[in-house]
Write a structure and sequence with these properties.
Shape: globular
Number of helices: 4
Distance between the termini: 15 Å
Number of domains: 1
CATH topology: Glucose Permease (Domain IIA)
Helix content: 10-25%
Oligomer: single chain
Radius of gyration: 17 Å
Order of helices and strands: HEHHEEEEEEEEEEEEH
Largest sheet: 8 strands, mixed
Length: 232
């Protein structure tokens, strides 16, 4: 267990929700976006409306409140965007957890924070509206990135703003605001921002997996979700 994981565990009573979820009554659907998911084909992936309908139907059929998953997942879905195909080795390894649900779903700050930075990363396949918060526990600084938000969430804030724990900070954005993805939240923990502002890779090359996973711990330490297989 790394230092951040230990600090989060020791301060569990201070940790608030990221989305509305009742572990005693609400159901989640793990969504797999690796090559083993043969349901997804290029026709679906290359049309955001089709892709969004596919996700929506999966949640409806499973009677699930959200779809969730993706940390340390080697994904095929990024082939839909040239944004992930620069250089000799494409980026395919996912560094955060995605929470899939309707546009307009509220998003909350899990721990008192300051606004580190924000941006509208509006290239096709990118984050769209993005918010990064700076947290500190017992002098240890780390960050949380919220991607694929609605634009309104970054229009009335400024760097350095204090954000109380538990405060609503955003909503899931529609495809025109979220980088042209089905509505969802990309939630990622980042220890060292490496000088970046308003953006940080949420997908890396597999050859750089060890370095990025060390800097981006599993968000399961914050998200209070659980599955029978113990993944979360």
């Amino acid at each position: 267990m790394g230092q951040l994981e230990k600090l989060i565990a020791a301060n569990a009573v201070r940790i608030h929700k990221v989305v509305d979820f009742d572990t005693s009554t609400d159901h989640l659907l793990p969504l797999d976006f690796t090559s083993s998911n043969t349901d997804l084909n290029d026709e679906i992936l290359n049309d955001t409306d089709f892709f969004a309908k596919w996700v929506s139907n999966k949640l409806k059929d499973d009677q699930a409140l959200y779809g969730i998953g993706g940390y340390n997942e080697h994904r095929t879905i990024y082939s839909r965007s040239a944004h992930f195909d620069t250089g000799e080795e494409p980026r395919r390894l996912h560094l955060g957890v995605d929470i899939w649900g309707p546009a307009g779903t509220p998003v909350y700050n899990f721990l008192e924070a300051k606004v580190h930075s924000f941006a509208n990363n509006n290239r096709y396949g990118d984050y769209g509206a993005t918010l990064i918060l700076r947290h500190e526990i017992d002098g240890y600084v780390f960050h949380a990135l919220y991607g694929h938000l609605n634009l309104a969430s970054i229009q009335q804030i400024k760097i350095g703003d204090d954000i109380p724990a538990g405060e609503k900070i955003a909503e899931f954005g529609v495809q025109e605001e979220n980088g042209f993805w089905p509505p969802h939240l990309h939630f990622q923990l980042i220890e060292d921002m490496q000088g970046k502002m308003g953006d940080y890779p949420g997908v890396c090359k597999f050859s750089e997996r060890t370095m990025y996973l060390k800097n981006c711990p599993d968000p399961a330490i914050i998200l209070n979700f659980s599955f029978p297989d113990g993944k979360f």
